[in-house]
Amino acid sequence: MVYPHAYRMEHTETNTSNNMYGLHAISQSKKIKIPPELLKLLQTIDSMKEKFMQNLAKAIEIKSVGPNLLFRNDVQKMVMFVEEWLKVLGMKHEVFNIGTYTVEGKKCRLPPVILASLGNDPNKRTICAYVHVDVPDPKFQKWDTDPWKLTVKDGKLYGNGTGCGKGPLMCWLHALLTFKMNKMPLPVNFRMCIEMMGHANSQGFGAFCSTKKQDFFNHVDFVVQIDGEWIGHKVPCIIFGTVGNIHMEMTMEGDSIETMKSDMNTIFDSMVNERMEIQIPHYSDSVEQIGPDEEMIYAKIDEFDPEEIRESLPPHKRSWDRVRLLINMWRLPSVMLDKIEECTCPNREKKMIRRHFILKIVPRQTLDYVKELVVKHVQRITKEKNLKNKANLKIISAGKPWVENINSSCYSTAKKAILQITKMEPFLIREQVSRETTNVFDSGLEKKLVILPICARGSNLGQANEHISSRCYQEAIKVLVAYMFQVASLKTKKNVKAKSDKPKK
User: Fold this and answer.
1) Is residue 457 a contact partner of residue 230, using CB atoms and an 8 Å limit?
2) Which overall architecture, per CATH, does domain 244-288+331-399 show?
3) Distance CA 56, CA 343 (A)
């Protein structure tokens, strides 16, 4: 079914020639043959199930809350824990001081970044695993189990970091250990990039990585990040895009709270309508158009059931179908408004109000252009409406949207590995969140990035009662091993170049 919407390209009732969104079916078959060497590794993973859970439990016990000074010693314990594993695996590694930041009024060193490598064969592809091993402070959450103790309940592994951070770390380490146990060389060159501030917007990480662009990251073909959730409970997913956002604060300072609130409401009423659609002129002009091939990707995601969220939707969205709801979440601009707050003004003779709002940024919208549109709109409305109070805008944070070409070998190999292990073709999904790391790897380092979620929907990543199913944990290790073989099956750069250099007959 082709759904007509505002951003549909004209004359695209059939498949488009857009390289970004080709048909993504791998094969009519749901099976990919498992070669003997891979089968041997998979059998080892099955035999090590209990041991792999015990290893995860040891990681969960370490209270590695990144930005909190009270846990600084625990962060160092996490560094030592990782280092011990890297030594066991025979990986060369180095721990880097990446600068300072201010916390609780004190200037402190940022938690370090660990870079590790195994193999440097020019005839092999090189993949880099990005992992963060920090976790949020659970004292601000209500856990039903001890967040610092791995608890097995109903086939699920509960603990702070099981699905986000420490779980992914142990999946990679166990995948590498499986090769070592079988005295089998890795089919690829492997790099690992581990940080401790993933839950704190990866402070300092991007600037540090830029200094390693020409050495550590120079020959990396693909970056793999394990994070996020599936859109359902059964079918694995691959994330190929995220939204961006601009978090802004508007303040007004004056003598009358009521007058300022009235002026601020006038500005926001002109900016957003009753349906929370952005009314700023030209705001959506640059939004990337959506064609039928892209809609087909979303139409295949049948584990997303609109009925589960329909009652929570605003009235005008309750009749929308699955595809339209996914497009609205992942591909169209929107805004989220906080309430107007009264706050203390530095000048006690005056009063101040403020309001935070977050603008969703989607592909082909640029941060600078959107910022400029918002500022000019506020200035124009202030002048046209002859408002008595001047609005001041401040950028709290900003992140660009990210999208990857799903037809690239980075994705074809990931899809095949998942299909090979799970016998299911993964859904291709986007996220309604902004990730700092996508900007680091895509824009900063210019590397192909694939994000592989290993947790089913509702795993509470980064929240109270975070968990991952025992089955997902085991299968994730298998998928990573299979992924290395799939990447190794690609033609090397050397072979590709030799073929292209052949004279034409």
Assistant:
1) yes
2) 2-Layer Sandwich (3.30)
3) 45
CB atoms within 10 A of CB 390: 14
pLDDT tens string 85-135 = 999 999 999 999 999 998 878 899 999 999 999 999 999 999 999 999 999
- Output DSSP code: residue 342: E
CA distance 238 to 261: 44
Q: What are phi and psi of 152, to 5 degrees?
A: -100, 120
- Crossing angle between the packed helical segments 72-88 and 166-181, to the nearest 10 degrees: 20
- For the stretch 283-324, pLDDT in tens is 999 999 999 999 999 999 999 988 888 888 888 898 899 999
Q: Are strands 100-103 and 106-109 parallel, antiparallel or unpaired?
A: antiparallel
Residue 27 neighbours by CB under 8 Å, 6+ apart:
419
Report d(CA 244, CA 399) in Å as an integer.
Answer: 5
Listed by start position, the domains of the chain span 22-242+402-496, 244-288+331-399
CA distance 475 to 472: 5
Spatial distance between the Cα atoms of 198 and 461, rounded to a whole number of angstroms = 13
3-state secondary structure 39-93: HHHHHHHHHCHHHHHHHHHHHHCCCCCCCCHHHHHHHHHHHHHHHHHHHHCCCEE
Q: Is 383 exposed, middle or buried (0-12, 13-18, 19+ CB in 10 A)?
A: exposed
What is the pTM (predicted TM-score) of this model? Answer: 0.90
Q: Which of 328, 200, 345 is nearest to 260 (CA)?
A: 345
Residue 361 φ/ψ, nearest 5 degrees: -110, 135
CATH number of 22-242+402-496: 3.40.630.10
